[in-house]
Amino acid sequence: MIITYDGFINPKLLDYGYSLFVVYLVWIFVVALLYFPSKKYMHIKANNKDKWWLSYL
Fold it and tell me: Where are the transmembrane segments (predicted)?
């Protein structure tokens, strides 16, 4: 959505979007969701240095 100057002063867009609290909750959830697969991948990659194709992932 492209907001022009008129969009900033439009009262209908005053409550557009999510609150900062909801954004922080979603951010924490996504980080927590990706932490464990990333940690497992790091462990697999560190213990399998002989598999050359892992360096391309």
Answer: 16-36
Cα–Cα nearest to 45, from 35, 55, 36, 37: 55
Residue 34: Cβ within 10 Å count: 10
**Between 32 and 4, the higher pLDDT residue:** 32
More confident residue, 21 or 5: 21
Structure tokens at 25: 């909750």
Q: How many whole angstroms separate alpha carbon 10 and alpha carbon 5?
A: 9
Kindly report the three-state secondary structure assignment for every residue of 1-57. Answer: CCCCHHHHCCHHHCCCCCCHHHHHHHHHHHHHHHHHHHHHHHHHHHHCCCCHHHHHC
> Token pair for residue 4?
């022009």
